[in-house]
Design a protein that fits this description.
Blueprint (H helix, E strand, L loop, with lengths): L3 E4 L3 H5 L2 H13 L3 E3 L9 H5 L3 H14 L6 E3 L2 H8 L9 H10 L3 E3 H8 L8 E8 L3 H5 L5 H8 L2 E5 L15 H4 L1 H18 L3 E4 L2 H13 L5 E4 H10 L1
Parallel strand pairs: 1-2, 1-3, 3-4, 5-6, 5-7, 7-8
Helix pairs in contact: 2-13, 4-6, 11-12
Length: 243
Amino acid sequence: MPPAAHLFIPCFIDQIYPQTGIATVNILRELGCELIYPEEQTCCGQPAFNTGYWREAAPLAERFLRIFSEAEYIVAPSGSCAAMVKHAYGELPLSDEARSRWERERSRVYEFSQFLTEILGVERWEGYFPAKVTYHDSCHGLRELGISEKPRQLLKSIRGLEFIEMERPDTCCGFGGTFAAKFAGISTAMAENKARWIQESGAEYLVAGDSSCLMHIEGYLQRQKIPIKTRHLAEILWEARKK
């Protein structure tokens, strides 16, 4: 019997890309999971943490740990937010009680593609998506969670989908949260490189596991009038299933 999953929907998805959250829900329900969505959840504290405000991030972390304390699994369609809870919380000035709770809960945190492949055992995705697709490795997902081959494996298994590996798929897109605002010139140059590699691949779609990366790259593509579509992995899987 599929396990119960507590959904952790990050701020970016809740406020800007709700379709990603909906696709995540639809997929997990179809796979038989019991879904639990704690409505009191808010930001995990990553923006404050990444900007250096660790003391301010700690109360958000402690709140998160309380809200999800009963979860069998905590599933997030975001590599960066999952990595924040799983790893970065250990760097924060937490209370002794919260730190003990984190040490118990961190092993239950899974990014969406990890949960599908490692817990639910999904190795192939039955669906149809006739398009050329490439994949961007988000920094947190790749470097902190080790996510690389499993999303590619799922994409390659979809009927009609032609997977094309772009040049340097593991290079940062330049978003980095407030980095994009503080160092706009550098951030834009990094997005320009990423967009060039995507174009050179010949792909029609760019897929990633982090909506923040997709927002940054999509913004550059649109400003330059480059007709390449961006999709979260969950969206591609759900669109393929419906066809």
